[in-house]
Amino acid sequence: MLTPTERLKKTVGGKKADRPPCICPGGMMNMITADLMDLAGVYMPDAHADAGMMANLAKAVYEKDCFENVGVPFCMTVEAEGMGAQVNLGTKIYEPHVVAYAIDTVADFPKLNHLNVNQGRAKTTLDAIRLLKQETAGIPVIGNLTGPISTAASLMEPMIFYKELRKKNAAAHAYMEFVTDQLIAFGQAQIAAGVDVIAISDPSGTGEILGPKHFKEFAVKYLNKLLAAIERDQVNTIVHICGQMRSVYKEINEVKSDVLSFDSIVPLKEARQALGDRILMGNVSTYALEFADEEKVKAITQSCLKNGADIISPACGLGMKSPLANVRAILKCVKET
Fold first, then answer.
1. Rounded distance, CA 101 to CA 157, Å?
2. What is the pLDDT of residue 112?
3. Helices H, strands E: what count in the chain?
4. Does some domain include residue 146?
5. What was the pLDDT predicted at 231?
6. CA 197, CA 314: separation in Å to the nearest integer?
7. Domain count for the chain
């Protein structure tokens, strides 16, 4: 019988495993719920800033039969905070969020901090990865990065950012180069700390918002720059993009990750037809996970398996009030298939 790490590595490498892996990476795809915190006796927001608590809460995801991996951090604000945005760490129910932007325009990017991986929550994340690597043999440790577009849109007002991609094109590219370089530094530090996989979530970099031309010019370009700098002989990579994909399947197929992940608005059957033999991950509705029942969750999981998912996962971050029974129903269904 394969270990979860062996199963995931085989699948990501395009080889046949005993069954599909069932994972939830972390980052934007946060896998922590209020029920799980109660079981583990570890709570947010404290776990966002304490490496031991972060590692213990991540381990609970596997130990309590939710998913077949551990992953940190549990939010998308670590990078923006490290570069100068002000962040509220949230509560047991609400995730961290930016409360004050660092700059007002793309041209202001020289005012941003370089991301220092040896301090703040970046360091906390790296320390948690080291603990997880020591304490979870056979279980894949997934590190997480916020994608370039989403990080850039967290450092300044998003609507101004999107307008300036068009109106201040050269300055926008300079800004994106800077942001991506900071993400590269954090990604390389996660590799050094011991991750098996890096998941990059870029929900703000959608084809619906950017359109095909700017999706290719900004989202694909800087995702690929980030991916090229990640040592792929050492780790595998997942890229998650939100929104409808119909207008940008050609462009998304140019993203050089090992795995592509989409949210529940994307029909996996359609994605499989458009993307051929790419490794696809997804995309159990997080709305159903929070508000439906176990049987509905199992039915959606079976549909994902039938329609082309190589790796089963939630379509987005779990709602914090999602019942543990619903969350466990995904893995239960995959093991029964």
1. 7
2. 98
3. 15, 9
4. yes
5. 74
6. 17
7. 1
The amino acid at residue 322 is: S
Buried b (16+ CB within 10 A) or exposed e, 25-35: bbbbbbbbbbb
What CATH number is attached to the domain comprising 232?
3.20.20.210
- Give residue 292's pLDDT: 97
Name the region of 122 (left: φ>0; alpha: ψ -120 to 50; beta: rest).
alpha
From CA 290, how far away is CA 270, in angstroms rounded? 25
pLDDT, mean of each 10-residue run, the chain (337 residues): 96 95 97 97 97 98 98 98 98 95 98 98 98 97 98 98 97 98 97 97 92 96 96 87 94 97 95 96 96 97 96 96 97 94
In a domain, 11, yes or no: no
- Render the burial of 269-304: b for 16+ CB within 10 Å, e for the rest: eebbebbeebbbbbbbbbebbbebebeebbebbebb
DSSP-based three-state secondary structure for 264 = coil
Give which of 97, 93, 59 is closest to 75, Cα–Cα.
97
Alpha-carbon radius of gyration of the chain = 18
Helix or strand holding residue 281 (H, E): strand 279-284
Assigned token pair, 268: 């996996």
| Angstrom distance (rounded) from CA 270 to CA 90 | 37
User: Is 12 among the domain residues?
Assistant: no
What is the residue range of 175's domain? 20-323
User: Which string of DSSP letters, residue by residue, matches 96-125?
Assistant: -EEEE-S-SSGGGGGGSPPP-TTSHHHHHH
pTM value is 0.97
Is residue 311 included in any domain, yes or no?
Answer: yes
Pairwise CA distance, residues 197 & 227, whole Å: 12
Query: Which letter does DSSP use for residue 61 in this model?
Result: H
Write down the pLDDT at residue 137.
94
Please count the other Cβ atoms lying within 10 Å of the Cβ belonging to residue 308. 17
Q: Which helix (H) or strand (E) holds 79?
A: helix 78-83
The phi and psi torsions of 261 (rounded to 5 degrees) equal -130, 140
